[in-house]
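Input record (one chain):
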Amino acid sequence: MSNQTQPIMIQGDREILAEDIEHIRLILRRFPTLSRKEIVHTLRETLEWLTPAGLPKVNACTKLLHRLEEQGNIRLPAKQQQYSHPASRGISTPVGGEL
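The corresponding structure, as predicted from the sequence alone:
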């Protein structure tokens, strides 16, 4: 059995092979402007990572990417600043009139 088919690690119920890690690196090189969220969804789709019920395993894919980055196998893009609507943060804006 070659090293190519032996698992490098296990994430959830999935064996991660060297070819999976190379695929992840390829996606990161080919699409350098994707956000972390977009990378997760792209990889989840291309690796066909689904639950037995057919739902996407987004959380497991996210954890895998973080593990690979912590181990120095990949480099993810910087986290993007998240913006939210002022009302969702509890900040009220006066409507016509003074406070």
